[in-house]
Amino acid sequence: MSAGRRTLGFSWPALVALAALAAPRVVLHDLGVVPEGTVVAALLAVGPPLCWVAAVLWRRPPRPFLTMVVIGALYGVFLAVGHQVLWDSSLGMDAPGLAGLAPGAREALLRGAAVMSSLVTGTMVGVIAGAVAVLLSRVLPAPARRREQADASRPLA
């Protein structure tokens, strides 16, 4: 078992797959397919973090908060890449002007800010989802098979 799996409770491919659940929202939003303020937009925004919380509650990793922050950070990478790939479709040269900057410098500055913003946003979604997961894990009992595994791994007194 890898150190990441022991600490985070999931393999790296599983963590990436969980983060990728939120990727469709980036594409649909940037292309203007799903307008903000609709039920579909809300489901695309809230659904993936709810799935992350459900997965953590089901798996009961040793460090659920860290697991969720990692998933959120990975989501931030998807968010950043998606915004960069779809930049011209969603914003392009309609980007707000910055007085005195050449268009190339303006675009580089705005793209860099968008990447940083995406990474922070994804990580913060992970932080909030992690807090929810930790609180729920204290309130909700672990699934029976997880309790049995945990009991079996404890040393006998």
Blueprint (SSEs and pairs):
Blueprint: H1 3-8, H2 12-20, H3 23-30, H4 39-59, H5 64-85, H6 87-90, H7 103-139, H8 144-153
Transmembrane segments: 38-58, 65-86, 113-137
Keywords: Membrane, Transmembrane, Transmembrane helix
Q: Total helix count?
A: 8
Rough shape? elongated
Question: Care to count the β-strands?
Answer: 0
**Average pLDDT metric:** 86
Helix content: over 70%
H-E string: HHHHHHHH
Beta content comes to under 5%
List low-pLDDT spans: none
Distance between the termini: 26 Å
Radius of gyration: 19 Å
Integer count of domains: 1
Question: Given the helix and strand composition, which structural class is it?
Answer: mainly alpha
Biggest beta sheet attributes: none
